[in-house]
Here is the input.
Amino acid sequence: MISLQGLAYCESARVGGDKMDEAISSYVRRNYNLLIGEGTAERVKLEIGSAKRTPESDNVSTYVRGRDVARGVPSEITLTQAQVADAVAEPVARIVHVVRSALEHTQPEIAADVIDAGITMTGGGSLLREISTVLEYETGLPVRVADNPLTCVAEGAGQTLEDPTYRGALLAI
Ligand SMILES: Nc1ncnc2c1ncn2[C@@H]1O[C@H](COP(=O)(O)OP(=O)(O)OP(=O)(O)O)[C@@H](O)[C@H]1O
Ligand SMILES: [Mg+2]
Here is the structure.
């Protein structure tokens, strides 16, 4: 939570895009006895991943290849977007949880400002389909995704170091 160019509150949970990939791998292993690689799980996420089911989710699908655990042979299945949404539900819920927790722990005046400023999502994971909609629904606040979510944190940290206005801001924690 940033207020008056400083850190008003900070909370962190180690849930990023890689946790979504792991969740997809576990889902496929659990439901199809199929072992898939990290790269395959990430491809599925990028191609059809979604933070929630939509009316189209049953009609969007992709193939997944891996090794059948029981038979030890290569095997291929089809996964729908609805299934991928179910698979990533847990990490998505953890993100929602930490955001809600941060809002609960913020001083009332600052929390009130969030109604206008809203939430800005960063990180590649914020490009997951529907994730900002889910966060908007769960918090009742406006949510936007940063313009360059994959690089904005590094770029912003660099600018913060260079701009005297923010002197000391990165030392606050
Ligand atoms: N279009 C996309 N949809 C979903 N995920 C994406 C997309 N593009 C990149 N990613 C994911 O973003 C992640 C890399 O970016 P980054 O590490 O910045 O994000 P993050 O893991 O969400 O957040 P952080 O690591 O800052 O907590 C990878 O997991 C990558 O798969
Ligand atoms: Mg990451």
